[in-house]
Amino acid sequence: MTEERVALVTGASRNIGRAIALALADAGSDIIVHVGRDRAAGEVTADAVRAKGRAARVVEGDLADPAVPGRLVAEAAAFRGRLDILISNAAIRPEAELADLAYADWRRVMAIALDAPFLLAQAAQPWLEESPMAAIVNIGGLTGHTGAAGRAHVITAKAGLAGLTKALAHELSPRGITVNCVAPGLIETARSGAAPAHHGARHTLIGRSGRVEEVAAAVVWLCDPASRYVTGQVMHVNGGAYLP
């Protein structure tokens, strides 16, 4: 990046979200670190951003609440009086067979992984229009394109996010805002439980799982001035596990 910018990264307390926040800080952005509940983990991310010489602020809120995205954008824009980058990374990925999938669980996944990116983009649009190099990057997922058992709600949300990306690109790119999606594949992350069952059936051409820094690098490139001719795209970072 050639100039300082301000980025809001949702779900930035750990794993891919934290890696994105740190990579954007390395590229010259001040970071708004969103967390759902774990403020202490968010402060770890913020401290790491500050250690890189960039400003950081932690904002907290449950993105399943439709009132929260607008508040987060307002807090982010107030931090430095501008907002240049929106990264919608926050998501939950519970597993449940169709017969056992409660509608409330379906709705919570949709609210966080699909409704919130829509509401965030809507609230951020006036601020992003003021930026000379505004970018939105949504973080999708491999199974949103391949499917898998036991996660109908997650797959539907991630597939919808790819569609939302294309729709927003049509509307916002003429206003100077690029909109893209990064779809990670098998990425090594810290998990509270066992890896999803579908991971065992997938293999990469590279022969290993990916690193969170490799996903972050793709996101940073899509926010860089060098990528201003790229919009409406889904960039797969999966080691060849899926070839669209």
In short:
With 244 residues, the chain is an alpha/beta fold.
Measured between the Cα atoms of the first and last residue, the distance is: 29 Å
Roughly how many Å is the radius of gyration?
17 Å
| Coarse morphology | globular
Largest sheet: 7 strands, parallel
Low-confidence parts: none
CATH C-level name? Alpha Beta
Strand order in the sheet with the most strands: 3-2-1-4-5-6-7
Could you say how many structural domains there are in total?
1
By CATH's scheme, which homologous superfamily applies?
NAD(P)-binding Rossmann-like Domain
Task: Write the CATH fold name.
Answer: Rossmann fold
Looking at the overall shape, the CATH architecture is 3-Layer(aba) Sandwich
Helix content: 40-55%
Determine the structural class based on helices, strands and strand pairing. Answer: alpha/beta
Mean pLDDT, to the nearest integer, reads 94
